[in-house]
Amino acid sequence: MKYEGMIYRPPSEADSLILQVAVGCSYNGCTFCHSFQGKTFRIKSFEEIKEDIDEAATYGTIRRVFLADGDALIIPQTELVRILAYLKEKIRGLERVGIYANAVDVLKKSTEELFELRRLGLGIIYLGLESGNAEVLKRIRKNATVDQMIRAGKRVKEAGILLSITVLLGVGGVELSHAHAEDTGRVLSGMDPEFVGALSLMIVPGTPIHEEMQSGKLVLPTPFELIRELGTMIANCRFTNCFFASNHASNYLPLRIRMPAEKEQALQLIHQVLQRKDPELLRPEYMRAL
Fold first, then answer.
1. How far apart are CA 191 and CA 152, in angstroms?
2. Run of H or E including 148
3. Which among 90, 96, 237, 252 could bridge 282 via Cys, Cβ 3.0 to 4.6 Å?
4. Which of 115, 123, 125, 60 is nearest to 90 (CA)?
5. What are phi and psi of 107, to 5 degrees?
6. How many H helices and E strands in the chain?
7. How many angstroms separate the CA atoms of 283 and 285, rounded?
8. Is the dihedral of CA 257, 263, 268, 272 positive or negative?
9. What is the DSSP string of 24-79?
10. Could you tell me which of 170, 195, 165, 196 has the C-alpha nearest to residue 181?
């Protein structure tokens, strides 16, 4: 397999074959993101992709494939269909293909086009919401509005594709912490995804948001304020059936809950942690990572 630069994939795709069909991120403008700095975006040729698929076909049974890089759903429909069809033809035992997308990419696809991709094996789309608050989205230079986020989420679900959403605790700073948490819970409810992954903002030097922090424009919430955000977010979520996780290495309080069934139990735990304010209850700083 031929990879260009650092490759990123969702934690749930740890056992998947990573097939790099594009390099970098077509937008690459979010203030907090360092993942694709230094990469010039391009879509790989089908010949390059075909060569990697042919190699993968020699590995034996592969149940899952993840299409990298940052927003591979931007690939034109005819090319995505060609890639998925070839994967389906060549890879033995393939059950699901996953892909990163942003809301704008999703909305460029009709429900019928997404359904076609699902028929060819696209089983899950990972979409970064980050925040449901309009001001926060503007500050982090996300390339979609709250309305676009909700419409994109609904379109994925209408096509029968699993929807996994990422949100960022702390991204609104202390100033917008409560509004960020409340609004994100409401927007997540409107999208009603099957999966939500809550991460905590970790500042990477060289990013625009790092400059904001250094200048004092952004003040990060404390660990317990981040946990309060998490509780407010969960309290405002109304899901049909969603697996909500905050067990990413960036978080101070790892949770894995099925909502709505385990919602109240999780809120009680968060309440207890906030009452005690015992640092021993939190993931140690040295164990946190991106």
1. 8
2. helix 146-158
3. 252
4. 60
5. -70, -15
6. 10, 10
7. 6
8. positive
9. S-SS---TT--TTTTPPPEEPPHHHHHHHHHHHGGG----EEEEESTTGGGS-HHH
10. 170
Domains of the chain: 11-287 (3.80.30.20)
List the one residue out of 82, 122, 103 whose CA is nearest residue 166: 103
Q: What SS3 state is found at 202?
A: coil
CB-based contact 237:244 (threshold 8 Å): yes
Beta strands in the chain (DSSP E): 17-20, 22-23, 42-43, 64-68, 96-101, 122-130, 162-169, 195-200, 242-245, 256-259
CB 64 within 8 A of CB 35: no
Rounded to 10 degrees, the C-alpha dihedral 186/191/102/147 comes to -60
* Residue 213, pLDDT score: 95
Angle CA 235–103–241, to nearest 5: 35
CB 200 within 8 A of CB 226: yes
Query: What is the signed CA dihedral for 214, 37, 132, 106, rounded to 10 degrees?
Result: 170
Q: Which of 182, 184, 210 is nearest to 198 (CA)?
A: 184
d(Cα 128, Cα 279) in Å, to the nearest integer? 30
**What pLDDT shows up at residue 110?**
96
Q: What is Dmax (Cα atoms) for the chain?
A: 59
